[in-house]
Amino acid sequence: MGEKPIYVEIEIQDDIERIWEYSQNPKLHEQWDLRFTSITYNDKLPEEEVQTFTYSTKVMPGIQVTGWGESKGTHEKASGEKTSALHFGTEQLLSPIAEGKGYWKYIPHEKGTTFLTQYNYDVRFGVLGKWGDRLFRPVMGWGTALSFDVLKRWVEAGESPKTQYRRFFAFYAICFLFAFVWMYQGLVPKFLTQHPLEISMLTQLSPLTGGQASTAIIWVGMAEMLFACCWLVPKLQKRLLQLQVVIFPFLMLSAIIAAPAAAIAPFNVITLNVTLWILSIVGLLLLEQLPSAKSCKRKRGEAA
């Protein structure tokens, strides 16, 4: 375990016992933790200190990773601080994680509870696995942090994890849709084929000649493809949605002025632009209620 451990910390405005229940009860834990689809505790005798469990994670429909885990006991200080140690792993080659260890810590204070975790793991496949872990480890850290914020919102506001994740993935489905639409519109009708209708509309809306418009439409297509790539940058998505709410009505009006016949064609500029305009508004509404990994500290001692 030579790599840097994954560390995630969040402040939750509720008492430590409730946070403990939501994270230690497997039926509650599996609801908010994105890393697990199901968690099942195995039978334990009263004198046994180690609680074993099995877990599964659905990678995609029909494919899942199953593994084992051990809760290695709980340490509680006089201050009320609790720590739960974990040991986990899987034999499935589909998982880049072979075996790992970590802990959860619960620190009560006047405003609520500091909930944090730190864990590390060994990868399989030798050097190849270590190279792959350079991409996988940040994803695991992000997934842990996102899950912690989902838990925080569930405990503090009572909003179920299922509702939060539906909203989260619906928002990013909209963003990927916009990325696809702008990429296709820039690549196919403008850059690759230079569709006559695209050139005709540009000549109608500008003083360019046909030859100049043919060259200009390539640059317009490249700009649209660059705009499509911007949708993959989370920091830009809010501004892009706001921009689209403003520009889609103007794009629709411009297209109608340049080519009135296009307004009555199947799947025309009116239906397309109105649909994308409404989706932009929906995206903005969803964005205001999204859980975020940014709500967590990712380094020990990091400022809030």
3D architecture notes:
It contains 8 helices and 7 strands. By secondary structure, the protein is an alpha+beta fold. The protein has 2 domains: 6-158, Alpha-D-Glucose-1,6-Bisphosphate, Chain A, domain 4 (2-Layer Sandwich); 168-287. A hairpin with a 2-residue loop joins strand 3 (51-60) and strand 4. The model has no long low-confidence stretch (mean pLDDT 93). It holds the Pfam family DoxX_3.
Provide a short characterization of the protein structure.
This protein has helices at 16-24, 26-32, 126-157, 161-192, 196-205, 210-230, 237-258, 269-287, and strands at 6-12, 38-41, 51-60, 63-76, 82-89, 97-109, 112-123. The chain has 304 residues and is an alpha+beta fold. The protein is elongated and about 85 Å long.
Query: Would you identify the CATH architecture of the largest domain?
Result: 2-Layer Sandwich
Strand content: 15-25%
Work out the number of β strands.
7
**Overall 3D shape:** elongated
Order of helices and strands: EHHEEEEEEHHHHHH
> Helix/strand-derived class?
alpha+beta
Number of discrete helical segments:
8
CATH-assigned homologous superfamily of the largest domain? START domain
Please indicate the count of domains. Answer: 2
CATH class of the largest domain reads Alpha Beta
Fill in the CATH topology of the largest domain.
Answer: Alpha-D-Glucose-1,6-Bisphosphate, Chain A, domain 4
Task: Return residue spans where pLDDT drops below 50 for at least 5 consecutive residues.
Answer: none
Across the major sheet, the strand order is: 1-7-6-5-4-3-2
The overall average pLDDT, rounded, is 93
